Amino acid sequence: MGKFFQDMVLRRIFMVTLDRTRLGLRTSLSSVLKRIAAACAERKGRLKVKTSTAPSSKPTIYFLTPDYQVPSGGILVIYRHVDILNKAGINAVVLHQRAGFRCDWFENQTPICYVEDTVVLHGDLLVVSEISVSTIQSLEKGTRYAIFNQNTHLTWRQGEQAARVAYRASSDLAGVLTVSEHNAAMLQYGFPHLDVFHLRLSIDPDIFYPSVAPRPKRICYMPRRSSDDAVQVMSLLKNRDAFQGWEFVPLNGLAHAAIGEELRKSRIFMAFTRQEGFGLPAAEAMACGCYVVGNHGYGGTDFFREGFAAPVASGDILGFSQAVEQAVINDEREPDWCQRQGAEAARYIAATYSPTHESEQVCAIYCELMRGAAAKTADPQPPRSVALGLRLDAGVHGHQG
Q1: Residue 357 is inside which H or E element, if any?
Q2: At what angle do helices 3-23 and 29-45 cross, to 10 degrees?
Q3: CA dihedral sign of residues 45, 160, 198, 168
Q4: Per-residue model confidence as pLDDT tens digits over 238-275
Q5: Are the CB atoms for 188 and 382 separated by under 8 Å?
Q6: Coil, helix or strand for 392?
Q7: Is 382 inside any structural domain?
Q8: Considering its fold, how many domains does the chain have in total?
Q9: Please, which of 32, 143, 166, 209 could form a disulfide with 139 given CB 3.0 to 4.6 Å?
């Protein structure tokens, strides 16, 4: 926190205390402190970016990305999209805060630049995430930006005002992208004046694929997601006779490739979550041939379908436990039951969430945004996907400031 902002906070506290003393107001000082703390947190969490109205000679797409070294599906997607765009001859780069930072929990050679020596110019496109929209308030007028919202349940994480400013109708807002039908519908409902692009993600077939090898009686899960629910379900299941001979395996702190290996050695995956943008872990488990039981988190309704998965209402601990036990009973009665269900799930994921389809959509959508062809109307429109058909000229990465 800068000295100026600290002084402002102290002055505010002093004036509130003085007013209460003079006027005998009953307004709680703690509520004022909470508001000040929230303002400090918002300011501290705001990602920095330098912009200028000078024209860009090499239009570039900058993906503003937090310096976050913990495995995150959203950041992995950003890196992948930058790679896709560059492979197609479209200038794109990940924009990090700290010089020298790069996510190292998965293999990548993705082009990266840093805010210290990078300026986003007129003709470039800045892409911000749903949890970085407060940055938009500090942009030069005329800076074109897009919002890549991978979880609409986090849209207001930085406050209602920041979201209102970011998503308002403006010639600077090129468009809004999201990754599931639920997300698209939620954005269209909340901001009916916007053009929402529904982009279908892919599941990496080189890491997440089924195995024909026999699988031990293993049930895996990710304990960091909805940990309270996971503790309750695990406590219930461990006392049930049906699970004798079955092993519960938490997937925690593993590299991306190692998760795929563990999933291929499991018959059942328990999906714990509440509000997802897409539900990547469950989709990856299906791609590896697991029978998935649990919560779709709403964003996962695109693929979490009965027949090869068992959706359970969020918070339904008993229903969750019973669904897992039923899967175990079915597999004990028919030794290949989980394998058959998992194989069907893997085929569906491979066909629906292919890298080829994702690449086509990524290139088409960002080409349209860069050309300024995304229509802006005042009438609500259904969420849509964009087909491939546009392309930019190749060029070099970045503008040095």
Answers
A1: helix 355-371
A2: 170
A3: negative
A4: 889 999 999 999 998 888 899 999 999 999 999 998 88
A5: yes
A6: coil
A7: no
A8: 3
A9: 143
Q: Which amino acid is at 255?
A: A
Q: How many Å apart are CA 267 and CA 221, to the nearest integer?
A: 11
Q: Is a pLDDT exceeding 60 seen at residue 97?
A: yes
The CA distance from 140 to 147, in Å, is 16
Enumerate the H helices of 180-250 as residue ranges: 181-190, 227-237
Query: Helix count (H) and strand count (E) of the chain?
Result: 11, 14
Contact of 191 with 167, CB cutoff 8 Å:
yes
Q: How much of the chain exceeds pLDDT 90, in percent?
A: 64
Same-domain status, 82 and 40: no
Tell the burial category of 396 from Cβ atoms under 10 Å away from its Cβ (0-12, 13-18, 19+).
exposed
Q: Which residue reads 């210290």 in tokens?
A: 116
Classify residue 380: in a domain, yes or no.
Answer: no
List the structure tokens of 280.
């990547």
What's the CA gap between 264 and 288, in Å, rounded? 5
Distance CA(234)–CA(228), nearest Å, equals 10
Report the SS3 class of residue 132.
Answer: coil
Based on the fold, state whether residues 225 and 339 are members of the same structural domain: yes
Query: Among 146, 147, 152, 145, which Cα is nearest to 180's?
Result: 152
> What is the token pair recorded at 369?
């945004």
Residue 41 has what pLDDT?
Answer: 43
Residue with tokens 């976050």: 68
Tokens 């519960």 sit at which residue?
248
Tokens of 103: 């996510």
Write the pLDDT tens digit of every residue in 118-139.
Answer: 999 999 999 999 999 999 988 9
202 within 8 A of 172, measured Cβ to Cβ: no
Report the CATH number at residue 289. Answer: 3.40.50.2000
Same domain, 337 and 362: no
Q: Which residue has the tokens 């911000």?
A: 128
Instruction: Supply 119's token pair.
Output: 């300026």
Give the phi and the psi of residue 127 in degrees, each rounded to 5: -110, 125
Amino acid found at 166: A
Together in a domain, 295 and 323: yes
**SS3 state at 293:** strand
Q: Worst-scoring range by mean pLDDT, 176-180, 226-230, 294-298?
A: 226-230
Instruction: State the residue range of the domain holding 223.
Output: 218-352
Cβ–Cβ under 8 Å, residues 262 and 249: yes
